[in-house]
Amino acid sequence: MTRSIEQVLLANITAARGDQDGKTDGRKLRWEQHRLTRRTDLIDGAIGAVHELGADVGMDDIATHIGVSKTVLYRYFTDKNDLRLAMAARIFESTILPRLTSAITDDADEYSLTRTVIEVYVTSVADEPNLYRFALTSQSGDAMISADSEKLVIELITVLITMRLTERGADISGVGVWAHALVGSITRSVDWWMAEGGDSVGEVIDYLTMFVWSSIVGIVAVNGSREEFLAAPPRITPP
């Protein structure tokens, strides 16, 4: 299971980069590879700048920290938001994805799997608050930054839910809605927590696990069937 998840996610990363094998000549391919390598180096440099200088760093400071002119940055990124989008994808690819694929195991039960995914995301954010505020949070200045950075996470959750429900012979018609709802609620909750503070990392993981696991249990209880759920929605037990 773990390998198939990783393959799906890496395929999406490739697609996002616009790779089109077999559609370019050798010289153009080498140039595009050079440009991609240079762009990746600049993204890594920008990540280092934000890590050291803080989430409010500007393009001038990023360029100085990397050791290039701002003109060079704008040659590879149309504006600051474009750089943020690229950094968000890079952070997921180089940090969050490896943590997820190493933590997810074939023999994990559904509850452990749910908690592991939440724990990896929350701890990754908590470990790098400046990078989160600059590149991943919906409060970073452009709603598209948050939406784009969530795509691979949603893909992961979609694959996980689909696999586990299919194993049970359940209806998977609602997987797309469920995956977007779960990721959206988690990321918005983490946005709020990073801005307001209060709860510890462990408490946030616990509360999010309570919420997400309760949703999963409810879905599994009706075998993923919308009709079965609507015919007899679960009741809250009286106090």
Chain-wise SSE layout:
Layout: H1 2-17, H2 26-53, H3 59-66, H4 70-76, H5 80-103, H6 110-127, H7 129-136, H8 143-167, H9 175-196, H10 201-221, H11 226-231
Helix pairs in contact: 1-5, 1-8, 2-3, 2-5, 5-6, 5-7, 5-8, 6-10, 8-9
Overview of this structure, please?
By secondary structure, the chain is mainly α. The chain has one domain: Tetracycline Repressor, domain 2, CATH 1.10.357. The chain contains eleven helices and no strands. The longest helix has 28 residues. The chain is elongated. The N terminus is likely disordered.
Question: Could you name the ranges where pLDDT drops below 50 across 5 or more consecutive residues?
Answer: 1-6, 139-146
Number of individual domains: 1
Helical residue percent? over 70%
Number of strands: 0
Number of helices: 11
Cα distance, first to last residue? 41 Å
Average pLDDT number: 81
Could you tell me the CATH topology label: Tetracycline Repressor, domain 2
CATH superfamily: Tetracycline Repressor, domain 2
CATH class: Mainly Alpha
Q: Note the beta-strand portion.
A: under 5%
Quickly list its features:
239 residues, mainly alpha, Tetracycline Repressor, domain 2, 11 helices
Short description:
This protein is mostly helical and 239 residues long. Helix content is 77%, strand content 0%.
